[in-house]
Design brief:
The chain is α/β, with parallel strands linked by helices. It contains ten helices and 18 strands.
Length: 385
Amino acid sequence: MSSEFVSLEQCLETHIPEQELKEVKRILYGGEVPLLTIPEQAEKLSQKHNFEIKGYQISAAKEDLTSPRIVRVGITQHSIVAETTAPVSAQRAAIHEKITLMTEAAALCGVNILCFQELWTMPYFFCTREKQPWCEFAECAVSGPTTQLCQELARKYNMVIVSSILERDHTHGDTLWNTAVVISNTGYYLGKSRKNHIPRVGDFSESTYYMEGDTGHVVFQTHFGRIAVNICYGRHHPQNWMMYGVNGAEIVFNPSATVGGLSEPLWGVEARNAAVANSYFACAINRVGVETFPNEFTSGDGKSAHKNTDFFYGSSFVAAPDGSRTPGLSRTRDGLLVCEMDLNLCRQAKDSWGFRMTQRLDLYASSLSAAIQPDYEPPIIKDLC
């Protein structure tokens, strides 16, 4: 079964001779990405609690006038812990405990910015289209228990944390949103970014719970660099990636929950293309495992009613603006990926390729302004002969 296939990297390393493997990695990943040494304490913690930990380095060219801007970024992927029939409080507490341990490992690795997967505190229950008990997972972005936990961890480890939650907006009619909360390394609530694009495909019936976000393409200036959050389905929209770059992001996180039968062939392409096209680092993050719910549900793809989600295939990775990328984490295991990056590479890629200089925002703006009008007619030149 595809769910038992551990990773593309493991398959390549097992079956391709070392000399050929270097050429394969050059073509697939833009070259061999150097390994980052993982501290012994972090390794022991990962072994004790059964999650993998991988580290890589992506460097920039040495400059005479500008010092390196070295940042260590961490991304996590994980399965749920408790059964979906357990009380909501028990399910969330179990995941809080798991991610607290993974955050400790990230801190031991010197991580400066840590991003969790999409809606990390809960099962991905949107396929059920049921409101109870699932809406109980929603919480305030500013003062909810998950944000409070992240603030404690951020202060403890001097680490920026990006936390994707189901938000309950008490100010505006108790509405729900798919929201990424950004906590500064001092534990201060910096702000939030809501999911711009909502899927209506297969088992992903998310518009039953929330609609498209209203925060635009906000970028957060942190102590370690300018970051943004392109939540899940937004990775399928190049314009969405583009706007974070236009607004100055140097690292864009893409916390996701996506399954093998739906999107896996696209997974290694979209974030990497975004990193190249927009001259920033892109971090693609997915969850792992199959989640089972108490009641059967149907989906939009003709399948018979079922209780299980498809397989969340993990494979989280980091892509760089020069086209290189790290290998991915496992398809089947919880994991922490640490990437040490030099943010000077963003500017160096802009100088080298000139994509930002040669883009035509004026042309796009004019064309898009016309395209959204109700009487729009595409400028198609027809052969009338």
